């Protein structure tokens, strides 16, 4: 008998097989176009940062932010829809599938999508000569941590609301500011002193710095264990919240 978590994963993959073309542009093509336009185009004016060309400097940020945005995007309307409109989770609850299986199956689905995108992106950036260290092979693992640290709490949020209008607030006040001010495009130390702690709170900043340390072979601003530990803490807290939110929603 297939494990319930695997059954949920198979269901999500079966749905994605019918819809993958709609997300191919944002998952694979858009990051590469962004890399070329900003990394090479704007990079010609920026020059170097920290002794490396702007293209090599921005690559890890784009990879981490792509994982971050994919995780948030996949954890909003799809989760709310399966509760409110499709009621797929209610159907699952009538089977041997437990709440933890629902959450784990969806997170595994997101992880597979993020890892495929990260590996493809890594291969393309290698062709551009933007990887300066063999430790760059660890960036898909870092992308996975970023994705899980973002997806789990957003899943919990999606399971806790009744209307999709709240997602506009999430995108406007969480996802976009995190992408702009988490060290993806410029060093965080260029921000005002009072604003920097907000960047440090974002799991994206920790993912960007870990990825940059891996692709450039340089030291991260904080010890590696501190960055990784913060991401793992966000994952654990988000997972706990998601399971509780799913369970509460299914009991209502």
UniProtKB/TrEMBL annotation:
Q: Keyword check for Transmembrane, yes or no.
A: yes
Q: What family, per the record?
A: Belongs to the ABC-2 integral membrane protein family.
Q: How would you describe this protein's topology in the membrane?
A: Multi-pass membrane protein
Quote one Gene Ontology molecular function term: ABC-type transporter activity
Q: What is the lineage of its organism?
A: Bacteria, Bacillati, Actinomycetota, Actinomycetes, Streptosporangiales
Gene Ontology terms: cellular component: ATP-binding cassette (ABC) transporter complex
Query: Which PROSITE patterns does the entry link to?
Result: ABC_TM2
Q: Where are the transmembrane segments?
A: 19-42, 54-72, 106-131, 137-159, 166-188, 224-246
ABC transmembrane type-2 domain mapped to chain residues: 22-249
A Gene Ontology biological process annotation? response to antibiotic
The name of this protein is Transport permease protein
Q: Fetch the InterPro entries from UniProt.
A: ABC2_TM, ABC2_TM_bact-type, ABC_2_transport, Nod_factor_ABC_transporter
> What's the domain of life for this entry?
Bacteria
Subcellular location per UniProt equals: Cell membrane; Membrane
Which keywords appear in this protein's UniProt record, sorted alphabetically? Answer: Antibiotic resistance, Cell membrane, Membrane, Transmembrane, Transmembrane helix, Transport
Presence of keyword Membrane? yes
